[in-house]
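I am hoping you can look over what I have pasted underneath with an eye to the fold:
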Amino acid sequence: MIQYFDPQPTELPARMPSPFTVPPHPLAFRAIRELEVGSLCEGRDEGKMFGVLVVRDPAGRIGYLRAFSGMLDGSWDRDGFVGPAFDAAARAAFWPAGEAELGVLAAEQRMLDDDPAHAEHAAIVARHAGELAALKAHHADRKEQRRLARAGGGSHALDQQSRADSAERRDLERAHAAELAPLAAGVAELTERSSQLARRRAARSRDLLVQIQDTYAFANARGEIKTLRELFAPDSPPGGAGDCAAPKLLAYAYRHALQPLALAEVWLGPPPSAGDRRTGACYPACRGKCGPILAHVLAGLDAEPPPVFGDATQIAADEPRVVFEDRWLVVVAKPVGLLSVPGRSGLLTDSVQTRLAARYGTVHVVHRLDLDVSGLMLVAKDDATHAVLQKMFARREIHKRYVAILDAAPAPALGEAGTIELALRVDLDDRPRQLVDPIHGKLAITDWQRLGGARVALYPRTGRTHQLRVHCAHPAGLASPIAGDRLYGTPGARLLLHAEHLAFAHPHSGERLALELPAPF
């Protein structure tokens, strides 16, 4: 299982790097390069996340383990790769029978849902709707005729016709009800039985899921063992927790007395439907599904702590610099690494908002820039100004222009400019990453313009989180991440994205303000 190599002592990490840090340690990256990329990616519509863990065995030899996320080709096991983290024997004792039971319930429900009575009932309901609509149209014509006739007198006969039309409609509705009643009762019974089966299947699925989760147990360097549900308590583990490459690798290492030295995860193959992965790119472990597990399994090991993004202690106290200011508002130059507003958890309070509040008292951030983005940012000094500026943003009366350098120039086929429309939502398993989701996402629109080479101008019409970063990186966007993007591309010294232009009518004077802050790159 271990693939051995012979690094120099100076090549070994002094401490195990955090699995949440990219790029990976050079030894882990060396192991990634030895993965059989061709055979692992061949013929796949969508790629998969693979992982490597550099280890030291009890004899002191250095090698690495390999694993894949979830299943590969419908199987949990593949020669040369670490198996799942769950107890296979314990799972086999109940899951095949449980899976078969769920299959029987699903088949019974399909039979009820596919009963011909449903189609027959639907056809009669449709025919009834057509007949009633035709009668209503006929009655509407007669009503118009009566209206015209009443202008010439003789309303008694016309009133009789009106009552006759009402009676005719009631007769039709009674006939429809009588025809539908026997079939409706049968359909209602089928629907209720189907609902009962669905509830039974859902309850049984929940019971089996708990049993499955209890087959996962993770040790750490201190020998402490916790189950999957213990690690996520009091919440329930998210779907797929424990099946990512990193937990598999570390669980195997502890079971076989191997010392973890460095870990890395890489996406191989075509991007997923969300477009948030590129083949050959390394990614940090996800914090949603893997965070609690890795925090436990690394306990007792000399490992680097996870990076804390948003810790602005290295940013000068006089930042952010003021670009424009009057009694109502202030525009500042936000530096990279400073939050726009305090973090939700309450652990990170340093931000543009808190620093300006210390200078001016209460302030209101009108729009936000990502932690990794620099540039112009608008802040109101009072409630009334804030309310007006927010309405102006909603009406798209405040114009913003960003400049970015991509990893590669946009393809010539995209032309010199264009518009990207991709709906976005948060990745629930790996916040704050965003995913493209046309069903559940919120529409995000970005205009773009080529500036030469890999440099582009970006004009957001909407203000979704990470909108510009995802629109650049996604295959349906510019298909090239912004250079230095640690979330959607390849980490670098900084994200090469900068808010360079801000233009709007002053909310009180009406004066047109157009502010420029050239990009530092």
